[in-house]
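User: Sorry, folds how?
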Amino acid sequence: MVKKQENQDIVLTAEAFIDTLKELKTEKELKKLEKYFKGEDKETQALGVKFGDVFKIAKKYKSMSIEEIEKLLESKYYEIRMGAVSIMDYQAKDKKTTPEKKKELFDLYLRRHDRLNNWDFVDRGAYNIIGEYLIDKDRKILYQLAESDDPWERRTAIVSTYAFIKKGQVEDTFKIAEILLYDEHELINKAVGSWIREAGKKDREKLLAFLDQHGKSMPRVTLRMAIEKLDPEQRDYYMKLKP
């Protein structure tokens, strides 16, 4: 029997998902997306579909099997892989999803991280698929990712900690930020600044202590993002530490 999504005549296959997306592509959107992808591989191509449409279609296919999702991850098209991550994200945060299925999603994300080779794949999926899964588990995998040669795996390490931050747990964010503090990749610098800023909303003293220790030497873009929500006087103080 062909598996269908509840109350809808949608065949939950990678092929059907791709066919649906292709109906929405436009030349105008193609030109936009070709400038948006920051990965360095020579394979990835843009299909020309608005991400808002990708997310809407992904939600309709959110009951897709792990096997079919992995087929989407194999695609050379940017938006199709974003669709795969979005389906995974919808499943991971669905209260009806079993712990076993969440483990499968976690494993798939990490096993096929080679296909998640842009900052927005990470930002779309890491919070729910990785971070939320690790809330009550050993988090050493994040420290391993933080030491990876792959910048997107390093970004996953810090972005995933947002799940912990939301629960008032900020230690891992600051520890991983220290590992990544002098990263050579600007999009890692920005992520570190953004996530220690978020951690600072939960624990202002830890943020200020981190800035007191590292503010003078950390990349300027990291510092700017980290101090964004501080009082004007505090922002001026930390910016003046920079040579």
Summary: The chain has two domains: 8-133, 137-242. Residues 8-133 form one domain. Residues 1-7 have pLDDT under 50 and may be disordered.
